[in-house]
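TEACHING EXERCISE
Course module: macromolecular assemblies
Task: Read the component lines below, then compare them to the predicted structure of the full complex.
Student: A.B.
Group: 4
Components provided:
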Amino acid sequence: METGWIRWLRERVPPHPNVPLGLGDDAAVVALPGGGQAVVTTDMLMDGIDFRLDEINPKQAGYKALAVNLSDIAAMAAQPVALFVSVALPRQGSRALAESLFDGMIPLVHQFDLALAGGDTNSWDGPLVVNITLLGTVGPHGLLTRSGALPGDRIVVTGRFGGSILGRHLDVHPRVTEALQLAGSYRLNAGIDVSDGLSRDLDHVVSESGCGAVVDLDRVPIHPDAIQWAVQSGGPSTPLDHALGDGEDFELILAVPQEDADRMLADQPLSIPLTDIGEFIAKPGLWHYTPDRSLKPLPRTGYEH
Amino acid sequence: METGWIRWLRERVPPHPNVPLGLGDDAAVVALPGGGQAVVTTDMLMDGIDFRLDEINPKQAGYKALAVNLSDIAAMAAQPVALFVSVALPRQGSRALAESLFDGMIPLVHQFDLALAGGDTNSWDGPLVVNITLLGTVGPHGLLTRSGALPGDRIVVTGRFGGSILGRHLDVHPRVTEALQLAGSYRLNAGIDVSDGLSRDLDHVVSESGCGAVVDLDRVPIHPDAIQWAVQSGGPSTPLDHALGDGEDFELILAVPQEDADRMLADQPLSIPLTDIGEFIAKPGLWHYTPDRSLKPLPRTGYEH
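Instructor-supplied answer key:
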């Protein structure tokens, strides 16, 4: 949600003791009065905004809609459990469209052993709208939030960044298992998934944590797609610009205490690379090192809500 | 959801042990592996289908969107806890529209002590779409479902029926507190809220319970609106037809063992009337008594999904 709008809502509906984590993180945490905590995320995707059914097929749209919600759950190192899918289907061919959408989701449902627990199926004269609510449970090693980064923590990222528009924005691999695995073996102080862009999502972590971050630009893992896209788009942007700003990488940014980061980087326990790209610092803001190791502001590129 | 579509889904995504109650009831129950059970309902409302913004204001739409979800939670005798609101807002004046929508919800948020825990706010060139997911917890006296009615149970309803189109379809009073209160004092074997229509929703209960029901038409509590609407609409339908078929009454139909029903009817513990309108029977189907007390099929009027 957009910040001004969250502020408006918070003024009218104050925080509730049953929701220790609500508006403003990747997912909310709801304490159930009967016992237990639910981790919940919800996303609405609309044809023409989040995807275009004249460019991709409904199966790809269904896959992506669920994958981005799973990525939000991954960002909390939570365990996804059940999904609820509401759809507004264009009246023409609505049943076939619904089947394709769900055919796109089903591989992820099986991969993460999810329950399809409910939803609401409608048709109308408007374009396709899909709303997914994903319900999860707190992972065995607690919750990862955006707000726990401490000065001195290393900035560790999974995978490589940039150029997702070439296809990875549809072929999303939510880092659910990776987040649970890392949380089980290393101390993680904060986390977020990269949807808006590496620099912008890192900015979300420093804002919520009340600290700053300095990125070592030489160490940012650039995806081959970022290089190809820099060439293809023929614009002034470098592959690094694309890595920092493109977004929809759906990788994780983690705040990791130094010694755990050292161990993690040496272990490389995942099938995708883990890279240390810099440090959280006390000085607020987003920075990068100049060649003489002084700090220069890092522009917050990427998608602004 | 529509029955054929639920069947298609169930074939592809089999029931999951974490979801003892899923597709097909008013709300789903999700067992959280970490402990606890969540009761979850979700509804998508679209401008032009569920309401028309050229006829009602956005505040009324917001109120209704939340009220119908609360009514689903009431149908399970569950306790609502937190809501998630996703919206697709028409780009023109989207902020003002969002504020009005939420202004409509806020009285219910306060009345039921709900947490606004998250959501997704978008704008586009299409009409308004609102999706609400409401998370609750199992009430202290367990869950009410559609499937527990037993032959011999009385059919007890809250309130009066018909003619909701005259205004009560917007001024919905979800029977959350009433359901919890009744569940605390009487044995209730099954329940549903009346959205599609008294006869159609009763039919949902008998289908899910594997029994039948006979309605004493003389005892159906007819709302004054049903009488007025029968006159105003000038059609062949009687006030009783409207009471049986109009829908959007958002009252409860309960299956209550005889002795509890007797006590409940004598107590009249609510500020709205409780009426015994007939009996669940072993013979499948929906019936009413003829003047000589034989059974005649009751037409299933009301909204068909």
